[in-house]
Amino acid sequence: MSTTAKQAIIALPPLSTHEKWTRWRYRHRQALEGWLILTPILLYYSILFIFPVVANLYVSFTSWTGVYDSPKWVGLANYRTYLSHPYPLILFNTTLFALVTLIVQTGIAFLIALLLNEKVFGRGVYRALFYIPTLTSAAIMAQVFFAFISPFDGIFNAILKALGQPIVVWTISTGWMRFFIIIYTIWRGLGGPVILLLAALQGIHREIYEAAMVDGARQWALLRYITLPILRPMLIFVLVTGMIASFQIFESVLLISNGGPSDTTNVMLLQIYNDAFVNVRLGLASAGSIIMAIVLLGFSLTNMRLLSRGQAES
Amino acid sequence: MRKRVTWGRIFVYSTLIVGSIIMAFPLVYSLLGSFTDLKDFYANPWLPIPRKLYLDNYSVMFTPTFSAKVQLWQWIFNTLIRCAWYIAVPGAIAVIAGYAFTRLKFWGRDFAFLYLLSSLMVPGIVFWIPTYVMMARFPGAGGNTWMGQGGHGFVNQWPALLIPGLVNVFYIFMLRQTFYSIPIDFEEAARVDGASTVQVLWTVYLPMLKPVLTVLVIFQFVAIWNDYQWPLIVSSGNPEIWTLALGIQRMLFVGAQVKGLPQGGTVQDYPFAFAMATVATLPLIVLFLRLQRFFVEGVQGFALRG
């Protein structure tokens, strides 16, 4: 009897190639589909994201017009250029703008968020008004901003004339131009931090404050020992992303001051743009962008760590 | 006690009101200014009050002299094309990549994800120059040889405005997080009924992804509508393919020319400039007011997810 059973098993027809292939495909369906999806994406990504970074690093050690000749190796010459005038000034300006913008902007946003967190009438309207400037085009509004400070027919000077004051040629004053660029950047950047900090504040339970108030805590102590510690992660996020953004301001400087007077408001992105596409010194410009990447590396890493921490929680 | 509360309320409201007036001022100023003529405009430099509704700054946009100089409608069309393209392609890629990174198990998946994430460490400026050179030296394009020599490549051509940035790592990350939050049971039920991967994505997941995709669409729309840096770099030489932000910025002060006003003075036609700026800005503000909930959710989502 056992022989017949064995024979019956053996008697099953062998699998056809087609059938084998179908089963193999079924067993490996996930890997097949996964790599079918990822291959084109990774290919595109390698060409347009990874290769450019490597190429940029290489070009930063060369002298190149990018047009007819090929890159000539010059070692660290481009980076050494960054030690001579006006580049240290440009690095200084970039840092100055970034720090002042960030501190003032986050401070104001924190204050506004605290106020909006009170039971105010029309909270949505205020929040909308603070966010709308973020939606405007950085370039067009910068150009509009220039209408305000234009030296002879600008609006600020029309106001000064109406008040019987002598006009001010804003564009030749380093202090004023720095002031206007910072004000403009804060104006456009305030909305996001307000929304984020307000959301974080609204996430704090009332009971925590009430418990502390029962224990006799004053307003200041509530802020210092409850609000700020709970807000810490969101504040770090706002500061890190704000840092990365405000180091890379471009349109405002290009269109409000164009770096003038004599480079005292020039910033890295504008100089890199000019080096690459006006002066056609791609090596020097690449060195500039590598310096930017290095300066921002700490912030970018923190940003990525924040991202992957959110990933671990999910 | 009562008095202190009142002072507190006064402080809260006065700060908020003064703050929002400052925030709204440049926009209100340009909107009101765009309805004045030059004389009314300078009559009150604090805030231009249109004494009568002056529509010339807008109606001039429909005249042939204007169209000969400023291809506004072409730029709006170009911008909408780019918006559609940069919503559809990176959006679709984010959905299917998000699916692959969460629902499919295969060798190399997590490494591939880290490989994608790594570019978030690099600031955008690093990509400008190499991408520009790649466009300029694209093999066989714009008079280039197959080695990419001799011509101008895709510079000042449409492809340069459509090729870079089609994979958006951040959106992939966002969609991956969303897929994790959806229970797998829905997919399994559909699989039992014999649905293929394409059907699962289309009929099971797409409806559930609607909220996050709405956020993606509106943020990408705003970003591309306002995109200035890349069009400035690759398309400055060809007004035909300019986008709205670049075109309007370049042509903000041509009012006197297109209106046939005497030129040579130093006074710019600011009311006209404000009208142009309004054309570029107002659509986004209207969009925001209609979809405010999604904007707020989006901003928070970017942070809370991360």
CATH topology of the largest domain in chain A: MetI-like fold
Distance between the termini of chain B: 42 Å
- CATH hierarchy: architecture of the largest domain in chain B: Orthogonal Bundle
Q: Under CATH, the topology of the largest domain in chain B is which?
A: MetI-like fold
Query: What general form of chain A does the structure show?
Result: flat
Describe the biggest sheet of chain A?
2 strands, antiparallel
**Major sheet size, sense and barrel closure of chain B:** none
Oligomer: heterodimer
How many E strands of chain A?
Answer: 2
Q: Which secondary-structure class do the elements of chain A indicate?
A: mainly alpha
Q: What is the C-level CATH assignment of the largest domain in chain B?
A: Mainly Alpha
**Into how many domains do the coordinates of chain A divide?**
2
What does the average pLDDT of chain B come to? 87
Give the helix tally of chain A. Answer: 15
Provide tags for this entry.
heterodimer; A: 314 residues; mainly alpha; MetI-like fold; 2 domains; two-stranded antiparallel ribbon; 75% helix; B: 306 residues; 17 helices; 0% strand; globular
